[in-house]
Specification:
globular
Length: 103
């Protein structure tokens, strides 16, 4: 097994919302997120717009903290997405996990 560490900087949070917010909205379906969760799950464009507005108002530190929480919560989905992207380039790779920490 090989351990690969990747440092990330200069994150485009606006475009990242296109990927992460629909995952969040989906997880809020079926009553898990209350009325607001149901509305956001049925209107992903509205959810993305709201997330972008919120992100424009909070500090960089809070944005980083939020991203770390989302990456931890949706770990399996992110691993699957990376494996799928690699497979599209004929690279077969089984990802076992990743860790997230603030530096």
């Amino acid at each position: 097994m090989i351990e690969l560490k990747i440092l990330v900087d200069e994150i485009d949070y606006s475009s990242l919302t296109d990927v992460l917010v629909p995952l969040l909205a989906k997880s809020m379906k079926d009553g898990k997120g209350g009325i607001l969760g149901e509305v956001l799950a049925k209107n992903p464009d509205t959810a993305v717009s709201m997330a972008r507005t919120i992100l424009s108002k909070i500090s960089q530190e809070k944005k980083d903290e939020l991203l770390m929480q989302m990456m931890d919560k949706y770990r399996n989905e992110l691993l699957h997405a990376v494996e799928k992207a690699l497979a599209e380039h004929a690279i077969q790779l089984k990802l076992c996990g990743f860790s997230v920490e603030k530096r």
